[in-house]
C-alpha cells in the first residue's frame, strides 16, 4: 500500500518544534525550498499493490536519504542521529519532537530497491529545482556544463588469488553443511594456513615458494568444488540455482590467469571491474566508472551515471548530457571536457577540451581553463560524501549509488555555515567572541606555535607588572 498521509492535527499540550528552534538554520531554509508534495507523488508511483499496512511517509524516507549522503552516514547511524537532532526532524516533516527512531534501518534498504535508479533520480532533480528557487544557480547556468569521469570503488577487499580461493572454499563448505552434503575433506585447517603462508612468501619476495603453495591451495579448492558438484542432484530444486552459481564462480576463479580480461575480483560482487589509476600509491582501482556532470559556474551536480564495462570516456558523453537534460529540463549547449574526450561530437552541443587551437578566443580559453573546477568537487564527494566506497549490491546498486551521493543540496548548508557562523547570525556577543577565539587558535596552529606562545607570555608578564604597580 502507498505511503500514509502526514498528520496535520495539532496537540494542545505539546509545543511544535518550529517554535523551539532557529528558523534561520540552513536545514530549515532548505526544507522550505524543496517541493515535498511532488517528491511524495513521484515516490508513491512505485507502489503497485493497494493492500496492506500503509507505507512510511515518503518525505521521511527522502529526507533520510538526503541526510545520509550529505553527512556520510550508514543506515543505522542516520536513523539514530535523527532522534538526537531536532533540525533533522523538522527537515523530514515532523511537527513535534520525537524520542524514538522513526523506522527500522532495514526499511531504507527496501525503499532503495523499490525506488530504483529512476526513483533516486527524482531526488536529484528536486535538488536542481530547489537550487533554482533559492537563486544558487540561474536558469541559464545549466546550458554550460563540465563533464568528467571517475571511479566509484566497491566495498571489497583487495583481490588476491589466495584470498579469493580461500573464500570460495569457505562458501562451498558452508553451503554443503547447509544442504546436508557430506564432504570427503573440507580442509578447514590446512587451507587458511596455506592462504596466510602465501601472503608471507609474497612479502618476503620468495615467489617460487609462493607459487608452490598457491598451486596446493588451488588443488584443495578444486577437490572441494568437485565433491559438491557431484552431489548436486541431492539438493532441492529451489536451492540448486544458488549452489550452481557458486560453483560457476569458483570455476571462473580457478581458471583465470593474471593477464586475463574480465576477471572475477570478488566472489559476492562479480560486477566489479579493474580500472588503471596509474599512480604509484594506487596503481589500480576496483569498482565502476562514473560520469559526472556539473554546472560550469557554480559546480552544482546535474547528473551522475555509472558506466559499466569501462568504456572510452568519449562514448559516455552523449548519455551524460542526456541525463543532465532530463533532470534539469534544459538542454546543455556547451560541454567542457578533458583530453580523454578528444574526437567525440554530440549533436546540438559544442564540445571544448584543452589543447584546441583553431577558433579559440580569449574568452573561450578562460572558459576551458575552468574545467579543472570539477576535480575538487569530485574530491569533496569522495572525502566528505559516500563516493569513495559503494556498499550497495549489484549493478543496480552501482547505478543508484552514483545518483545518491550526488544529492549535494546540503553542500549549500555547509557553505552557509562556513561563510556565516551561527554566532554571527545570532549576534550574541559571547558567541561572536568564542568564534573569533576559535578562529585565532586555528590560525595559531598553522603558524609558528613558539612565537605565538612567546607573544602570549610577554603580554601576560606586562599585564602582571601593571597590576603590581
Query: What is the end-to-end distance?
Result: 82 Å
Instruction: Kindly estimate the percentage of residues that lie in beta strands according to DSSP.
Output: 5-15%
DSSP, total strands = 6
Low-pLDDT ranges: 416-437
Q: Counting H and I runs of at least 4 residues, what is the number of helices?
A: 18
What's the overall average pLDDT, rounded?
Answer: 84
In the CATH hierarchy, the architecture of the largest domain is 2-Layer Sandwich
Protein name: Transposase
GO biological process, one term: DNA transposition
GO molecular function, one term: transposase activity
InterPro entries: Transpos_IS5-like (IPR047710), Transposase_11 (IPR002559), Transposase_InsH_N (IPR008490)
Descriptive report:
By secondary structure, the chain is α/β, with parallel strands linked by helices. The protein folds into three domains: 17-116 and 411-415, no CATH class; 139-156 and 272-391, Nucleotidyltransferase, domain 5 (2-Layer Sandwich); 161-255, no CATH class. The protein is built from 18 helices and six strands. The protein has helices spanning 26-33, 36-44, 58-70, 75-84, 86-91, 106-134, 161-178, 190-203, 207-230, 237-255, 313-328, 362-369, 374-383, 394-404, 410-419, 422-426, 429-446, 449-468, and strands spanning 144-153, 273-276, 284-295, 301-307, 334-336, 350-352. Strands 1, 2, 3, 4, 5 and 6 form a six-stranded mixed beta sheet that branches. The radius of gyration is 28 Å and the shape is globular.
Amino acid at each position: 500500500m502507498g505511503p500514509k498521509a502526514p498528520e496535520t492535527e495539532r496537540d494542545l499540550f505539546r509545543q511544535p518544534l518550529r517554535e523551539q528552534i532557529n528558523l534561520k538554520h540552513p536545514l530549515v531554509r532548505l526544507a522550505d525550498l524543496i517541493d515535498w508534495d511532488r517528491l511524495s507523488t513521484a515516490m508513491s508511483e512505485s507502489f503497485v499493490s493497494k493492500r496492506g499496512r500503509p507505507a512510511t511517509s515518503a518525505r521521511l524516507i527522502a529526507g533520510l536519504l538526503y541526510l545520509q549522503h550529505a553527512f556520510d552516514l550508514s543506515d543505522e547511524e542516520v536513523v539514530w542521529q535523527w532522534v538526537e537532532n531536532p533540525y533533522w526532524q523538522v527537515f523530514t516533516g515532523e511537527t513535534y519532537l520525537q524520542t524514538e527512531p522513526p523506522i527500522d534501518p532495514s526499511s531504507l534498504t527496501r525503499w532503495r530497491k523499490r525506488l530504483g535508479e529512476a526513483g533516486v533520480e527524482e531526488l536529484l532533480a528536486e535538488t536542481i529545482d530547489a537550487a533554482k528557487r533559492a537563486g544558487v544557480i540561474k536558469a541559464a547556468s545549466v546550458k554550460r556544463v563540465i563533464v568528467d569521469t571517475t571511479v566509484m570503488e566497491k566495498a571489497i577487499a583487495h583481490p588476491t588469488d589466495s584470498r579469493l580461493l580461500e573464500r570460495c572454499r569457505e562458501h562451498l563448505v558452508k553451503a554443503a553443511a547447509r544442504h546436508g552434503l557430506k564432504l570427503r575433506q573440507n580442509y578447514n585447517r590446512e587451507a587458511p594456513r596455506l592462504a596466510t603462508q602465501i601472503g608471507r612468501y609474497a612479502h618476503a619476495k620468495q615467489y617460487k615458494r609462493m607459487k608452490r603453495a598457491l598451486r596446493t591451495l588451488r588443488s584443495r579448492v578444486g577437490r572441494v568444488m568437485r565433491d559438491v558438484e557431484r552431489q548436486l542432484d541431492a539438493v532441492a530444486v529451489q536451492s540448486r540455482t544458488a549452489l550452481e552459481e557458486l560453483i560457476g564462480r569458483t570455476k571462473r576463479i580457478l581458471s583465470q590467469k593474471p593477464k586475463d580480461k574480465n576477471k572475477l575480483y570478488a566472489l559476492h560482487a562479480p560486477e566489479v571491474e579493474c580500472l588503471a589509476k596509474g599512480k604509484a600509491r594506487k596503481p589500480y582501482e576496483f569498482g565502476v566508472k562514473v560520469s559526472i556532470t556539473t554546472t560550469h559556474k557554480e559546480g552544482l551536480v546535474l547528473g551522475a551515471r555509472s558506466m559499466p564495462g569501462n568504456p572510452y570516456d568519449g562514448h559516455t558523453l552523449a548519455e551524460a548530457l542526456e541525463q543532465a537534460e532530463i533532470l534539469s529540463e534544459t538542454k546543455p549547449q556547451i560541454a567542457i571536457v578533458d583530453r580523454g574526450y578528444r574526437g567525440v561530437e554530440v549533436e546540438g552541443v559544442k564540445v571544448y577540451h584543452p589543447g584546441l587551437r583553431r577558433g579559440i578566443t580569449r574568452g573561450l580559453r578562460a572558459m576551458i581553463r575552468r574545467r579543472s573546477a570539477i576535480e575538487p568537487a569530485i574530491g569533496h564527494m569522495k572525502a566528505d560524501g559516500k563516493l569513495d566506497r559503494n556498499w550497495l549490491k549489484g549493478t543496480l546498486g552501482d547505478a543508484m549509488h552514483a545518483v545518491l551521493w550526488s544529492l549535494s543540496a546540503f553542500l549549500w548548508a555547509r557553505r552557509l555555515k562556513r561563510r556565516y557562523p551561527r554566532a554571527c547570525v545570532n549576534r550574541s556577543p559571547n558567541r561572536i567572541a568564542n568564534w573569533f577565539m576559535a578562529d585565532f587558535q586555528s590560525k595559531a596552529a598553522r603558524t609558528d606555535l613558539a612565537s605565538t606562545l612567546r607573544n602570549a607570555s610577554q603580554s601576560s608578564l606586562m599585564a602582571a607588572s601593571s597590576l603590581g604597580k
